Amino acid sequence: MEVTLVGTGTPLPDPNRAGPCTLVKAGENNGEHVLIDAGRGCVMRMPLAQTGPAFLSGLLITHLHSDHLTAFNDIVTTHWIATNEPTPLRVWGPVGLKHYVDHILLALGPDMKYRMDHHEDLNWEPVVEVTEVVPGDAFTIGSMSITCHETCHAPVEPTIGYRVESDGKVVALAGDTIPCDGLDSLTKDADVYVQTVIRDDIVKTIPIPRLQDILDYHSSVEQAGQVAAKNRVKTLMMTHYVPAPQPEQYPEWIAIAAKEFDGEIVMGDDLTSVTV
Ligand SMILES: [Zn+2]
Ligand SMILES: [Zn+2]
């Protein structure tokens, strides 16, 4: 499997980072492409990861925070106009996702009508198949067996982490969460563990109440290292960086996680990837 950080950003706009979005490729010739979350601008990054909305076998949503969903409508429309016959976009996510998708499709109504009126060969509306999942659910996408795990991002509920197994390898994808039992079951013995992180030591020094509020529901870099060590993962990939580091600061972030975890630690610009 190949895991690519398509977008490493956060709600804070950054010209160098798309919003949170991770791509997993698996199966024969890595031909199965699954996207986890759809942060701002991720569709723009996807061609650089040799994929695009029309190539997706599935889209998994961790939670309904807007920074993880900003590009959802872009994926729906780009998938629709790039396919030659009605082709479902298959989406999995927490309870509440159906309501979200119904309203996005409603908002896209005028655009669907304009395009269908204008393009004679485009005579179907976007087909979006939504499956709402709860912790303990399991499903498959091609060669990938996926299980759903509870993560902890209160008051944001529900939130889901996805454990993807293919060809004997395991990739654990957590969204925004603090350490909890569900995160342990998600990441246990994983080959790759992808975690959104914040630098709590830096955020604590910024006297902006709305930034202070993020401290209690995100993993710090240190906590990501602790969870990786506790659950014996092989590679920790960090993403969703607050505050956004300059590349020369990456070693400092990695050193903080490395105090807790002696496996491989990966972070970087958008499109950083690992293969297992
Ligand atoms: Zn969130
Ligand atoms: Zn977030």
Shape: globular
* Overall radius of gyration: 18 Å
Spans where pLDDT lies below 50 across 5 or more residues: none
What is the helix/strand order?
A: EEEHEHEHHEEEEEHEHHEHEHEE
Can you tell me the number of structural domains? 1
Summarize, please:
This protein has helices spanning 42-45, 72-81, 97-107, 109-118, 181-187, 200-203, 209-212, 221-230, 250-258; strands spanning 2-7, 21-26, 32-36, 56-60, 89-94, 128-133, 138-141, 144-150, 160-166, 169-173, 192-198, 219-220, 235-242, 264-266, 272-275. The chain is of the alpha/beta class. The strands form two sheets. Strands 7, 8, 9, 10, 11, 12, 13 and 14 form an eight-stranded mixed β-sheet that branches.
Features:
276 residues; binds zinc ion; Metallo-beta-lactamase, Chain A; single chain; alpha/beta; seven-stranded mixed β-sheet
What does this structure look like?
With 276 residues, the chain is of the alpha/beta class. The chain has one domain (2-275): Metallo-beta-lactamase, Chain A (4-Layer Sandwich). Helices cover 25% and strands 29% of the residues. It is built from nine helices and 15 strands. Helix 1 links the parallel strand 3 (32-36) and strand 4 (56-60). The chain is globular. The mean pLDDT is 97. The structure holds zinc ion (ZN) (2 copies). One zinc ion is lined by residues 20, 65, 67-68, 176, 196, 240.
